[in-house]
Amino acid sequence: MNIFSEIYGAYFRVVERLLSLEKFDKSEIPDAIEQEAFRDSALFIEPKLLPKKADSSDWGLLLRNDDGSFSPVTRNQPPKIVTELQKRWLKAKLSDPRFALFFGDDTLERLTKRLENVKPLYDPNCFRCFDVYADGDDYSDENYRKNFRTVLVAVKKREILKIDFVSGKNEPMFGQYLPIKIEYSRKNDKFRVFCYRMRCGHFSGITLLNIGRMTSVRATGICFPVPHADLDETDRLFRERRCKEPVLVEVSSERNGIERFMMEFASFEKQTELDMSAGKCMVRIWYDSQDETELLIRLLGFGPVLRIIGPEDFRKQAAERVERQFKLLFSDNEENISETS
Amino acid sequence: MSGFSELIKSFDKTRDYVRDFFIYGFKVRNEFDRKSARTYDDEKRRVESWLGDFLRYDSSERGKQVSISVDSGRVPENPLYKAFYSKSFTDNDIRLHFLLMDILAAGEALTVKELTNRLDEEYDAFFDEQTVRNKLKEYVSEGIFISEKRGKTDYFSLSPDTSDSFFGEYEGLDDAVKFFSEASEFGVAGNSMLKTAGLKNDIFLMKHNYIVHALEDEILLKITELIEKKHYITAVNFGKQNAASENYGIPLKIYTSSQTGRRYLVMYLPLYKRLNSFRLDFIKSVRDGGECPDYDKYAEFLGKNEGKCFGVSFGNRQEFGSMEALRITFSADEEREKFIIDRLNREKRCCTVEKVGDNLFMLTAEVFDVNEMMHWVKSFIGRIVRIEGGNEEIISRFYRDISRMHRIYCREGERL
């Protein structure tokens, strides 16, 4: 199977988009390129796409009309085929316990039947994620599945939900929420929902609810009448939660610290600067302010090869933990301190 | 920059560059020492074209730094998939693709000769039969066309498995593909399904997501195919110092970490009679080493051993690594700090946790390599009352580390 193939390529998609039009002006080509390809693609696609009279160096897929517009040489809408690779990928996902969350039993049965002669792209048993948390969501639980699907439908319809759930402090809670995005964490193996909290018919901030903690989810039939402005909404969501100031850390190359750090924190937005002569790297990390404690303990895990420089409050939290740890290990034995210093 | 193309023939070189821009972010032009400056300029220009919105330019004393900076928890689509959509092709490839599809879109089944004639007569596109035959054969293996023998002649038709039929007939499939295209292995295959159908992930966000793993999908697929075939493998590896090495063995499993971003190929090495793990991102290519008749024996061997790995290390001894025991006592107020006890229980992996006194909890590990645990153990700084067992070097280093951290954080002015 070939995962890196031109049939999935951006240039093929640009052409497919244009061939699906009966007739179009030259001015419509940049739009197709912008939708499907890359920033500089117009430089490379247009010369090959537009028919040339003098030679046959173009792709031969368009005709120039008398009025200057273009038409495809093809007569049908370009067929959109699900390839063997894609079917095999789907088949491999069928055995994932999360897959069934998206389907009713009957639909899942029909899809399974449709793919019965397809060989899975890979055996999921080839993979072992050795550090996933042990208290992940129970995807086989009927109530969980029902709640997941109600939330999913509400995200798409932008429908307000009435949700009963158990808080992190084990207290029963109830509220009305407008779910906007579903977040999955591989480390936690949990689904959570970003929601607008509703109070007295008004939105009152964004919150994150664990689907696994929901005991009852009911649709209200009230949909929030704003069209999907997807990127804007995600930006808004994270702007509210983004840290006020990035954490600044200094990472040393001791124990391969820089490489380990860069890999582990690859999923963060950050800015790095290397001081070659000192063998150190300064990194600014932007993070979700709700995850501050998680970030702190992950940074402390690097031990003395990483130094938290700021902001002061963040550094202070690290210092308090270190001080407490130092006392736990050394307070009864002052000699140890001098030995290890 | 004449002759520059934003499309690429092979993924290897680009994979290296994109990874360096993404993971390190601090390298300047002359530090990309694997290839020439011209290669750097070409690769940089490609990455700029593919990922322009995510590039960050910074100046440092060493020069201009280009990096890919993205909070992977807030992007609806892995931007690195774009690299997979940049495979180069010939004029014939694209012309045949759309013209053959157009001829067969009417639902007919045609022979190579008929298709070749139709191309010439109806589209003024002259191709020799062999070229058309090769493309048809390729597309049969890709599942785009179906081949059917009638007598001695092959007839070709379009696959009935259209994107519309899949997404239309199975309610929920669009959402499932949106999720899995971002959530796990080979997600780019799902992403390409969405693109074909004109869909985008507008529902899911992925936290703790290492989007850079996508760059390894091509080589990972080759490896999983060889695991499934139960074959030997030679993995060509470029390590930390860029020194090439080859490792011959029996590929058994892919170990992934959801916390460190690392993935490993676990192999049994006949030469050393032991299990070993190799960073997937350091493997540049693999060669099929032929069938391994005793494959199941080695798979079983791994099965017996993996319960004693805290991470990916099988220790140093041949056949069976030697086990090391480690006991760590943590303090946590049972009333007010239950979250610490919960954390221990959900993160302990193959270890055990028991209450050993008032507000004291002991984690016991018996693993091949206790050193692997220490990064995680240090994330409990402020809670560790006692640490025993393991080996002297590791315990001493832990005490030294805490002492050094105390100087760094609690005695101002101390440097790393």
Structural account:
The complex is a heterodimer of chains A (341) and B (416). Helices cover 35% and strands 25% of the residues of chain A. With 341 residues, chain A is an alpha+beta fold. In chain A, helix 2 crosses helix 3 (41-49). The relative contact order of chain A is 0.06. Chain B has helices spanning 12-24, 37-51, 91-104, 112-123, 129-141, 163-169, 173-183, 187-197, 217-229, 295-305, 338-347, 374-378, 392-410; strands at 55-60, 63-68, 145-150, 153-158, 204-207, 231-238, 244-256, 263-269, 274-279, 283-291, 324-331, 352-357, 360-367, 384-389. The model of chain B has no long low-confidence stretch (mean pLDDT 90). Chains A and B meet through helix 1, helix 3, helix 4, helix 5 and strand 3 of A and helix 1, helix 2, strand 1, helix 3 and helix 6 of B. Strand 3 (127-129) of chain A pairs parallel with strand 7 (244-256) of chain B.
Please sum up the structure shown.
Chain A is an alpha+beta fold and 341 residues long. Chain A has helices at residues 10-19, 29-36, 41-49, 84-94, 105-114, 142-157, 230-241, 257-264, 292-300, 312-330, 334-340, and strands at residues 62-64, 70-72, 127-129, 159-166, 172-185, 190-199, 202-210, 214-223, 247-252, 269-275, 280-286, 306-310.
